[in-house]
Structures are given as C-alpha cells and as structure tokens.
Amino acid sequence: MKTRLIKATLALCCASWLASGPACAEEAKPEPKPVKLTTTADHSKFKQLQKTFDSGPEVTKACLECHTEAAGQIHRTKHWKWEFLNPETKQTLGKKTVVNNFCISIASNYASCTSCHVGYGWKDASFDFSKQENVDCLACHDTTGNYKKPPGFAGNPVTKDTEFPPGSGKIVKGIDLAKIAQKVGKSSRDTCGACHFNGGGGDGVKHGDMDSSLAAPTKEIDVHMDAEGLDFTCGTCHKTSSHDVAGSRYTPTAKDDKGVQVRGKAGSGNPATCVACHDNAPHKKEARLNHHATKIACQTCHIPTYARGGIATKMTWDWSTAGKRDKDGKHITLKDAKGRITYESRKGDFTLAENVKPEYAWFNGNVQYTLLTDKIEKSEQRTPINRMGGSPTDGKSMIWPMKVFRGSQPYDPVNKTLITPHTAGNDDTGFWKNLDWDKAIPVGMQDSGAPYSGKFDFIKTEMSWPITHMVAPKEKALGCAECHAREGRLAGIQGVYLPARDNNKLVDTAGWAIVLLTLLGVIGHGALRIVTRKH
Amino acid sequence: MSERIYVFKRFERFWHWSQAALIIFLMLTAFDIHGTYKIFGFEKAVAYHTTAAWTLIGLWVFAIFWHFTTGEWKQYIPTTEKVVAMMKYYLVGIFKHAPHPFKLTTLRKHNPLQRLAYLFILVCVGPLLWVTGVLYLFYDKWAAWGLGSLSLEWVALGHTIGAFMMLAFLIAHVYLTTAGHTPMAHIKAMITGWEEVD
C-alpha cells in the first residue's frame, strides 16, 4: 500500500516536471524580444538631425522645428531663470541670487557654474534669456551618457578637441552632438543626476541624500529607484508638466494633508510628496504609526541615514583656512585615508561623512534666506544661511530630518553682509587660481552689485537641507527606541511628550521616595518583629 | 488548638495569582517604557505591556462578574470598626505578641485596614491606571473620540503616578502577608484556600 502511494507520487512528480520543463521549451519558439520604446519617434530617422552640429544652439534650432513650444516652456522655469520669487516671504531667490556656504555664489563665476544651466552661453550678466536657441535640450534628454558640459565653457558643450585652460596642455575632448541628438529620450536619473548629484562641486557634496549611487541604486539605497525593482526615475515623483519640474527647495511642502493625488482631483498639491502616492495614513498594520505621521514627516523614520550609497557628503567647509601654499609656492591638496580631499588651498578645510544620522527640527516649509542685502552680526551663534520656519504649535510643522551644513565663509565686517567672491575663472582675480581674497572679493561683489568696504573677515554659518531622498526599505525604517529613549534622535525636539524620553522630575522623585519609604518601613517593621520574636 | 477555615475559593486564588503575575510583569515593562532601565527595550516592552494589559482587562471582566454573582464584593465595603485597633496592633501589638484584634471569618476575610487599602486600590489607583492606560493605548483615536484637546503629557503623568502607588502597595502588601500567625500562613492560605485561625 505504502509503496504504491510513493510510486504514484513519483509518477505524478515526473509527469508535471516533463509538462512544465523541457517539453515546453521544445514547443515554444523564442519570441523576438520586445523593443521597449518610451517614444513613438525614432529621432535617428529625422533629416534635421542627420548633420554635423558645431554648437549646442544649432541642435536646439533643429529640435524647435518640431517641438515649437518647448523653448518657451523652458523659459518659464526655475531651471532656466535660476530665479524664484518666494510668494510668502517675497524674497527673490534662485541660484542667480542666493548665497550658500559651499561654493558661495555664482556671481562672477558664471562660466564655471552655468555648465549646469539648461542653456548655452551664460558667461556673464549679459546673457540673453529670451533667445530660444539658448535652451539646452540635450542636458535633460541625452540618453547616451556622452553629453558633457565642462565647467569654464559657460554651459556650452565642446565639439572639437580644445586645450583648456588655454596654455595648460590639457585637452578637453570634443563630442559628436549629432549622435547624441539622434538618440534623445526622456530624462533619466543620469541626466538629472549630472547636475543634481554633483551640487556643491562634486559627487554627493551638497545634498547628502543625492549622489551618483542613485544612478543605479540597490533597494537598500532607495526603495523606489531600486534599479532591479521599482526603478523610478526622478520624474516619477517630480511629475513634470510643460517642462516645469514639480518640487522645490525654496518652498518645500513640509506637511501634505491633501492625501493621494487622484487623476481629476481638484487642487494643485505637490505631486512629489510621499503623501501624493501613499496617502496620510499608509500604515496598515500599526495604526499608531499613522498618528505619528500627523506630526512626523515620513522621511524622519524612513530615511534612517543619508549618504548611504558609499559616497561621502561634505559636512563642514572652512573657507578661512584657504590660501595656504607649500614651500614651492604651489597649491596644496590633502586627502584622508580613504582618498577623500580634506584640504585644498583654493577651498579650505572639509570634513566628510557617510551614513550620516540627520539632525531633526520642526519645519513648516517656510525658508528665509540670508541674502547679500541682509545685515548679519558675527557672534557665538552661527549665522543661518537659511532659516527653517517651524514650531510644534503652528499646525503646519512636522518633524523633519535635516542635513545641517556648517562652515566658515568670508563676510564684510564693516557693511555686515555676506560676501560673494570671484572664485572660478582663469584670470588674475579668480581666487581658485591666485588665492588672493583682496583681488577676488571686489570683483565678485561688483558683479553682485553689492557694496564692499574693502575689509573682510570670516563668519561661521550653517545651512539646513531637508532630507527627502534615499528612502530605505520599510524593514530599515527607524525602530521606536531610536527616538523613545533618554538621549534618542529627537532629544532636542520640543513640544511633544515622548514616552521614555520625557518624564516629570517631581512625579519621578516623589514616586521613588514613596516607594523607598514603603520599603524602608517594611524592612524596619520586619526587623523589629524579628528582634522581638518569642524564642 | 487552631481551626481551619476555607477563605479563598478556587477562582479567587486563580484570580489573585494570575493578577499578581500580570501586575508584576506590567511593572517590569512599565519602567522599561518609562526609560528607567532597559530589559526588553522600548519597542518590545510596549508590545508586552499592551498584551499584559489586555490580558488583565480580560481577567478583570471575569473577576468583576464573579464578585457580583457571589456577593463577594461586600468584602470590600469599608468599615471604621477596629481600624484604630488594627493600626495599634501593627504599630505596637505585633511586637508584644498581643492577640490579633480581628477575627477572620469566611464572610469577613479582610481585616478593616485591608478593606480600606484594597478599596483605595480598587476605586483610586486602579481606575487611574485603567483610564490613563486605555487612553494611552488609543492615543491615535483621541481626535476621533472628541478628546483632541487632551494632553499626552498629563495622561502619561497620571499613569506614572498610578504606577508608583501600585508599586508602593505591592511592597507593603507582600510584606504584610508575613504578618499572619506564622510568616507563611497567609501565603499558604492564598495557595490552598485554607487559613488557620487561632
């Protein structure tokens, strides 16, 4: 009986293996691999693109023959204008105006900085923002990875081998724009990343939650962008409409209570928030966590650390030590054990870090910048480059993770303003070439149109960067005890009662006193009973 | 010669000991959650504390039912009779081996001080812990229940105060179990149900 059963089972197993295995493979003819096109147009077939392009604007003119309104759309965006009027604070912001504590400002440094502008030829303040052919289509639509806009060329690609800087003997290789133009496609992590991964002058320098590890990340680095999983591009969240990319660092959405953005739903919420897809109550198993989510930004728990992809981010930058030379009068570069630059004559001292725990703050989305026109005072307190608004009681704030970047940078102690030095540039006054603040500062301040007293000093500053990228898989979200502890991550957060972090000293002291007195009472009583017992 | 009377019925003993275990476990996890020490860690301590709390609530439903159906609730009606005598006994008499002023019967199995103490636990400490504890558990529902203006801090403080009072009670209670005619007499009674009376 038993053996018959085993035989039958074996036979069944064999049959099913034959049916699903080699037998099937013989019958099925290999189907042609479907071509995954994200477009209905093959640009290599277009006559307009089958020619030699000597410059970027020539390519754009060809693009505009069909995409007639594209340049006009770009012209309305921050990516083009580098200017943004904050409707709440009325501050005029944008890269053209703001000062930071990394490379400080773009004024007088255009030719270098504008290699990340979506345009061609912005070399000084005279750039013509109204010219359609000045729009750079390829920066965002290149799919080959070969498109490059080297610093120093005012946002122009190099089409013929060029010695740069002139007389240096270094050759910048020319690229074939026709090949690139024939392969244009949707923007990708690579195209966005070409600039946004490298903010602050290098891979991962500025943001901490954005670096080249996001070009093809693992699930651990970013659960949404996971190249072998969900494979989101930047545009999946930063839903772009008419070339205007959603999401803003100037007016971030700190608290999104609008819920999921369903098609047809009225309202113009930010489609790049977590809530826009996940809703306001996304925790299905632990309802208690949804209550946490009314006060705590998703990012706080779901991005346990930033700079997780193996690329260090800059944490501090001290400009005051810049300018040293070695005994031969040459620039110095120092590196740490991992080969990361920790000192450069032209920039000063840095510290870098990976897997950084963020700092946390109440944040309501209101950001007030310290601009060149604002008066600043040197004091023990660091001068904020940007003030992050927020409080536990304004009803608009959430607890957010932040990268707080601290530095020391030049300021004018007489006029009491920040300073925009001329750094990049192959000229006599550029600080990165000649290491002379007295030459670099007047040129930069003049370009900014700001007064300069002739005196400079260094002032300690800090700048906050809300952390929102590098969302970890849910298993890696913060555990309770990361914050519910005496000295947890939220040790400095006021306005909430945190079990395990908080206690009332009076209640605890009185409570333990009563417990102790009771204990002493019974011990005393018991001792007396033992002493007086009958023998 | 002493006589034996049956004071604690089977359910009552089961209730007492399971409640004792649960309360001690709740205390252990409570001060872990409070941040006083770390045994299980916050996350597990909260989970265990919650489970133990629900178990105790379940036990109480049975206990309340039992007390009312058997009439045993009357054991907790406070009396001033012999309270002073009991206090004198604990403060002086016990050391002089004076006779116990209270004669235990099945209808009056708690001495007057016990009655007062248990009643205080039942009507003050217990409700304080339960009300604040349940609110704590349903923190995320406050707004839906129309309790949005409630402060977590005050609820937490109330719960902590209750916990300290319960701990003080526990210490005194455990000690006083040794105050029978032999140190183990009361404990034996709570295990077997039979108390030896002089």
Describe this structure in words.
The complex is a heterodimer of chains A (535) and B (198). Chain A is α+β, with helices and mostly antiparallel strands. Helix content of chain A is 24%, strand content 13%. Among the domains of chain A are: 313-482, no CATH class; 503-535. Chain A has 16 helices and 17 strands. In chain A, a hairpin with a 5-residue loop joins strand 8 and strand 9. The termini of chain A are far apart. Chain B has 198 residues and is mainly alpha-helical. Chain B has a single domain (3-197), classed as Up-down Bundle (Fumarate Reductase Cytochrome B subunit). Chain B is built from 6 helices and 2 strands; from the N terminus they run βααααααβ. Chain B has a two-stranded antiparallel sheet with strand order 1-2. The longest helix of chain B has 29 residues, at 42-70. Chain B starts with a strand and ends with a strand. The interface between A and B is medium-sized, with 35 and 31 residues.
Keywords:
heterodimer; A: 535 residues; alpha+beta; nine-stranded mixed β-sheet; two-stranded antiparallel ribbon; 16 helices; 17 strands; 24% helix; B: 198 residues; mainly alpha; Fumarate Reductase Cytochrome B subunit; two-stranded antiparallel sheet; 6 helices; 2 strands; elongated
